[in-house]
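Standup notes, structure subgroup. Blocker cleared on the zinc ion input:
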Amino acid sequence: MRANPIGLHGPLFVSCLLGALLGAGSASATIRYRVSLAEPAAHLFHVTMIIPVEGRDVTTALPAWNTLYRIRDFSERLQTLRGICPASTAVPLDKRQIDKDTWHFWLAGQCQPQDHNAFQIDYAIEWNDPGPFNSQLSAHHAFLNLAEILMYVPERREEDVTVEFVDIPSGWRTIAELTAPSAYTYAAASYDQLVDAPVEAGQFDEMDFVQSGAHFRVVVDARSWNRALLADALGRITQYQLELMGGPPFDSPGKEYTFFFHIGPEGEVEGGGMEHRNSAAISAVSTEAAIPIAAHEFFHVWNVKRIRPQSLEPVDYSKEQYTRALWFAEGVTSLYASLTLERTGLWSKLRFYDDVARQIGDLESRPARAWQSVEESSLDAWLEKYDIYNLPDHSISYYNKGQIVGVLLDLAIRDGTDNRKSLDDVLRQMNQEYGLNRRFYDDSAGVRAVIEEVSGQSFADFFSRYVSGTEEIPYNRFLAVAGLEVKVVGGRVVVDEMASPTDRQHRILDGVLRGSTD
Ligand SMILES: [Zn+2]
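Run returned:
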């Protein structure tokens, strides 16, 4: 993800629903959701959840977090939660709340058992928040991060699910990177898969393109946007990263990928991007501002969605999920966004140097770097919702220091192998060992193991100083490998090329800028 810089219906519809949801007797999709968009003015999604049950009770829960590493307690947005046994008489279920996110429903009276008994859970949930980390239902559109809206049955997340949208305002379409068995209906093999695919509903622009054999869809919700500029940039970004990482890894129905863009003035959009397995949601104030975010989110297709730390699996929606690996998952992704922009010509090399200088300046402006390691910053991601935590004396950013550590690692690997290997090889090797094998890496130790395998050298010292430790970084010692140096000019940190680099420095800098090795 990338946040901006630190920055129904009532009983009437029950009977008709019954026929639709129970009558067909399909055994494949077990838990079914129906989401009504009938109340955009009130920003209320009306949700009906049909859960086939064998016994006489069921427990449902709403996630406490999703998209951001931040407990946000989506249940605070709930209204009118109730359960019924949807037999012909719609018998109410008894309900007992277990904790702030979890409810137990059971049948005290008689509900006519059928071949398939099922419970129905109804509720409304209010969302009118713009941006890729939120959900919204307004007169203009709907955007849904489904984990923020749909309850789950904790021990049944592995079952097939479908979600059907109804009461769609006239002229609106819906789109999501999911199987669509019928109009306005999406299916997934599990709750986790379903909620890793955001849904847009509204009147949006669309374009598509083919890159390296993969189909890309681009959904744009904007008052004005630059089609030619976006098409050109996305073409370059996807081409470069697909080539770098060995081709498209998508496992969506058509092996395709969807970019969702919301482009509009500040206040209407909240800038940032959110990665998903086969799609990304990006909000920005302009087409130009959306492009670097797209370069970051698309690289997440590998780094974090497929090259994934064990500490983030399986997802626990109920509480904080601690990982030390965000410096790699986010910071190194930010580095690859910058490298992609530079290597595809969307940025000049001077812009790339300026980006590195800015990252160094940011880190050096935060006194917390002396005591909070980048791993600790990763663990503390859950504190970012508190303003005071984000102050320079309280924290560093794992995006920021993670990106710098990525630059240092690339230079150290190139130095140690005489420019025969680079961080690119580490990412590709991690994709081989973890992504393609559907295994998860052991946080920083897992990253270090692959770096040592690729480079043939020990990085124990590097990791203890700069990843788990808080030693001051000797920038110039690392940058000199590529003939670069950090200076402070007029109070600003700048990165510059040395006046007369050696051949070796020249070769290594060329490798960094072109993404090549010798
Ligand atoms: Zn990210």
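Discussed briefly. Residues 316-518 form a domain with the Neutral Protease; domain 2 fold (CATH 1.10.390.10).
Next: hand off to the docking folks.
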